[in-house]
Design goal:
The chain has about 325 residues and is α/β, with parallel strands linked by helices. It has helices spanning about 1-5, 65-70, 95-120, 135-145, 165-170, 190-195, 240-245, 245-250, 260-265, 270-280, 295-319, and strands spanning about 15, 40-45, 45-50, 125-130, 155-160, 175-180, 205-210, 225-235, 255, 285. Helix 3 packs parallel to helix 6. The longest helix has 28 residues, at about 95-120.
């Protein structure tokens, strides 16, 4: 969990709205280092020495797990067996749980504000999560190109550095805002709220959020989206849902990309779906190829179904 691994020590930056089309690497935001409400504690030897991640320490936080490796007689070192779901030197399981609750509680309050704004704008929002290289950006380039004629579409891109992905989206004529997270391994609700304010109006449209490529931490952070979509590449290996269960448990849809490669790499689709539903029995599954366009008609039908599902409670409440 990133609240103890220290992955978010870096300084996030979000493009200015007038910076679209320009590289923003190094374009740090003009706000004070409030990090949009993103607050991480740092612990050393069981004592809190900083209460925000505004400081750079000049050294990496590598934790020594030599005590675990010194255990003999077993082939598995299970650091997830702790009540906190992880084991970190110098922090008790109870303290790790409290830190996680504090961070996620604050994030969830901001996510609720985001969700209210999205609903007020009649906007359906999808949070795309995956490991690096699954093809999220290629998938989005095709999807926004084909959807932009029917409704407003916008994209918020998340990466540690560069605006390469946002540039690819903007080349389609669709607005995109890049968030660079520095050393951070995920987007949080405050970052997304700030980026959304910099997009043009998207009322009645679709907002795609492409999260940082990481199959662990983004699972824990609600951004205010309607649902998470985990993008899975046929080349990733069938057992990813079992290796990274939190991500598949948190997602409503598993989108299996690069399905055109399946015959070449002997990909077992049925086994992958069985593993995913072992983790999340209700997860829906679609297969697509961003390269060939196969399966995108089904994806668009799924998006329309989600939009109708979101509107129904609002319409019912207005009667």
């Amino acid at each position: 969990m990133c609240n103890v691994c220290g992955c978010s020590k870096g300084t996030p930056s979000i493009e200015r709205a007038d910076a679209q089309g320009a590289q923003t690497q190094g374009d740090h935001h003009d706000r004070a280092h409030g990090h949009y409400g993103h607050h991480h504690d740092h612990m050393h030897g069981g004592e809190k020495v900083h209460d925000s991640h505004n400081h750079y320490h000049g050294h990496d936080h590598h934790h020594d797990h030599s005590d675990q490796h010194a255990q003999r007689g077993g082939a598995l070192v299970d650091c997830g067996a702790d009540p906190a779901g992880l084991k970190t030197a110098g922090i008790s399981g109870e303290r790790a749980i409290q830190i996680e609750r504090d961070i996620l509680g604050k994030n969830n309050r901001i996510a609720a504000d985001n969700r209210a704004r999205f609903l007020a704008d009649d906007l359906i929002v999808f949070n795309l999560v995956s490991g690096p290289g699954a093809g999220k950006t290629s998938l989005l380039v095709r999807a926004v190109s084909e959807l932009k004629g029917s409704r407003p579409v916008g994209v918020i891109e998340g990466d540690q550095q560069t605006s390469n992905d946002a540039d690819r989206i903007r080349a389609t004529g669709v607005p995109a805002i890049q968030i660079n997270t520095g050393k951070g391994c995920h987007l949080d609700a405050a970052m997304v709220g700030e980026a959304y304010r910099r997009l043009p109006p998207l009322k009645g449209g679709i907002l795609f959020i492409e999260n940082v490529g990481n199959l662990v931490c983004p699972a824990a952070f609600d951004l205010g989206e309607a649902c998470k979509i985990v993008v899975f590449s046929a080349a990733d290996g069938e057992d990813k849902p079992l290796k990274y269960p939190d991500m598949f448990a948190a997602s409503s849809l598993m989108l299996i990309n690069k399905i055109d490669l399946a015959p070449v790499i002997d990909f077992d689709l049925a086994q992958t779906i069985e593993y995913a539903r072992r983790v999340n029995p209700s997860i829906e599954v679609l297969t697509v190829s961003a390269r060939t366009g196969v399966g995108f008609v089904g994806l668009y039908a799924w998006i329309r179904k989600q939009a109708a599902h979101q509107r129904r409670p609002v319409e019912d409440a207005s009667r």
